[in-house]
Amino acid sequence: MAAAVQANLSRAFETLILGSRRPVHPRRWARIRCSAAASPLRSYSITLLPGDGIGPEVVSVAKDVLSLVGSLQGIEFRFREVPVGGAALDSMGVPLPDETLAAAKESDAVLLGAIGGYKWDANEKHLKPETGLLQLRAGLGVFANLRPATVLPQLVDSSTLKKEVAEGVDIMVVRELTGGIYFGKPRGFGSNDRGEDIGFNTEVYSAPEIDRIARVAFEVARKRHGKLCSVDKANVLEASMLWRKRVNVLASEFPDVELSHMYVDNAAMQLIRNPKQFDTIVTNNIFGDILSDEASMLTGSIGMLPSASIGDLGPGLFEPIHGSAPDIAGQDKANPLATVLSAAMLLRYGLGEEEAAKRIEAAVINTLNRGFRTGDIYSGGMTLVGCKQMGEEVLRSVKTEEQVAALH
Ligand SMILES: NC(=O)C1=CN([C@@H]2O[C@H](COP(=O)(O)OP(=O)(O)OC[C@H]3O[C@@H](n4cnc5c(N)ncnc54)[C@H](O)[C@@H]3O)[C@@H](O)[C@H]2O)C=CC1
Ligand SMILES: CC(C)CC(=O)C(=O)O
Ligand SMILES: [Mg+2]
After folding, report:
1. Contact residues for 323 (Cβ-Cβ < 8 A; gap 6+)
2. What is the C-alpha to C-alpha distance for residues 407 and 131, in angstroms, rounded to an integer?
3. Which residue CA neighbors atom 1 of ligand 2 most closely?
4. pTM, rounded to two decimals
């Protein structure tokens, strides 16, 4: 990581990364100081993982936006593109090549598109694109996945919910990302005592795993509106019973945060009934995966939701919450804004470049204000555009905002 980053770390980044009270690893700071001395510009290495399906289309847009905003902010990005998922399976035989993980670990931040597709659906587990993504998240140690679901006034009419329900929704889902049933052992296939085929997975969490994600969530809630809802299934699952117990223990460290608990089935219903009751939600890996897709539809489309995944050490991973959307891949129909907004999160949480992050967010708003919509967020009277043109309009907005700022 480069250039005066230590001084520039935004408060949010400090809180999220250092909130666990663990210092940044000395090797990492050594790298930061070293590259800061080498260049008068702020210079960062970014690993790009376009992946599969619409991944390359949306990452290409986000890369252009990062480059332009960087050039206006005195930031140089050194991009390195490496394969992951199906693209890596096809070119290198595994879904996460060692070279890809090494490149990601060496960089200052990682921007991912999406992985997966019909072509690899029948592959064995270790040769599935999705396995590569899980390995990447575990390899980077990014245990905290922040998924903001904010209903922009410009898109209230794109939500499938009534305007009065969707308007003003602003939820942060804090999803545990490197534990739970996606990683738990034992897992596999076998047969039961009646000789029938079975498939099994294990939902398992340790107290330290729960504590560290709960701490991040309390810190996030403290910076937002001070309300944290922990979502679990503690009426049935032992892993959830421990989850609830630890979250309650942690609550004593955050007396200013109002904590509540909700069962996941009720939470799924309440998100549609009255989403404005939620501020920050903390939950396990699988519930967070599902609830954040549900929350995305409050905002108009899954094509709008970015995410930031962070850990104690190493670079953060930034990706839209959607998948590779094989049904629209290669047709220039994908909404690139979730990935563009993920690039903004990369700047804010990954690099501490708050001003640059704000410029991207302002450009997205400006583009929506000018009436441009991809198909997934289209409502009457707007200008329907494809992925590429949406990207060009965001670039135009960045330049327009620059000219307006220059006049003042
Ligand atoms: N982080 C990742 O890379 C993820 C990968 N996947 C993988 O993606 C593949 C497809 O999975 P699905 O369940 O279909 O989920 P998906 O999120 O790819 O697509 C669900 C629906 O949303 C639409 N959609 C998604 N992103 C969009 C965008 N940016 N603009 C406009 N429309 C968009 C799609 O066209 C589709 O109708 C699978 O192989 C799955 O395993 C799924 C979720 C996350
Ligand atoms: C491979 C899946 C766990 C990816 C996914 O659906 C997600 O992270 O949202
Ligand atoms: Mg998902």
Report:
1. 53, 114, 115, 116
2. 51
3. 130
4. 0.92
Alpha-carbon Rg for the chain, nearest whole angstrom, is 21
Angstrom distances, CA of residue 309 to CA of 199, 212, 262, 328, 369 = 29, 14, 24, 26, 29
**Any idea what DSSP says for residue 275?**
G
Q: How many CA atoms lie within 13 A of 197 on its CB side?
A: 3
Tell me, rounded to whole angstroms, the distance of Cα 297 from its chain centroid.
16
Q: Considering 297, 324, 359, which residue would you say is the last residue of a domain? A: 297
Pocket of ligand 2 (CB under 6 A): 130, 133, 182, 289, 321
Enclosing H/E stretch for 309: strand 308-310
Alpha carbon distance 138, 150 (integer Å)? 27
Domain count, the chain: 2
Last residue in a domain, options 249, 279, 297: 297
Centre of ligand 3 from the C-alpha of residue 181, in Å: 14
Q: How far apart are CA 286 and CA 39, in angstroms?
A: 43
| Same domain flag for 292 and 337 | no
Q: What CATH number is associated with residue 111?
A: 3.40.718.10
ipTM: 0.99
pLDDT tens-digit series, residues 61-102: 999 999 999 999 999 999 999 999 999 999 999 999 999 999
pLDDT confidence tier of residue 107, bands split at 50, 70 and 90: very high
Domain housing 15:
1-145+300-408
